[in-house]
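[Q] Does anyone have a clean structure-token version of this?
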Amino acid sequence: MLEEKNSTKMKAKTSFIVGAVSLTVACISAQAQAPITGTIDFTGGLTVDSAIPNATTFETFYGPSGTGGPVVQAGGGLPSGSYAGVAGNTVANFSEPFDFAIYYAAFQSSTTLTSFGLWSFSSGGQTYSFQVNTVTTDSQLVLAGTAFFDIVGTGTANITGGSSSYLPTTVDWSISGTTANASGLALTLQSSFAAVPEPSAFAFAGLGSLLSIATLRRRK
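[A] Here you go.
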């Protein structure tokens, strides 16, 4: 009977330790994926469907020379964080048309829409991409004959390939611009995408070490 109890205790103890080690290994594996950090900006131009302040859609995107796609802006510490290795003037493929008014209306009515893949590009063996989830601000005005716009929202950034592995990360984004021709449909483009890592990502990354400490204490 005593042998049976000892055997049962040993099995329970062994089971607990193996389970803890398995969970710790899983968490350490998850640490290999880091949340995206930093900011990346693009410059170029775009066209809208109607003159500011009545635009609802970005019809086309183009580079500073009027051809190709918007390019990565370098200087002043940008790109930064996970985007730091991207060379300035790297051309991005922006999807068009992008009906931002629909996303803004959905945000106002608390409706969720399918994400819109806004841009992507490859650099240094990695693929960078971004999806729009919401448009939270649609600001358009004409002042002294000059048109201004600022479209702001949230989305998801992804970086895949290469030696580093990243988690899909929430990003604050904006597309803003201006034109001296208030009735024109072509405007300059200045867009910014700044990563906002979720607190839960950091908490999960640290869970492995916390579990390891807990296991060691239990075994003493």
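[Q] Thanks! Anything notable?
[A] Residues 37-196 form one domain.
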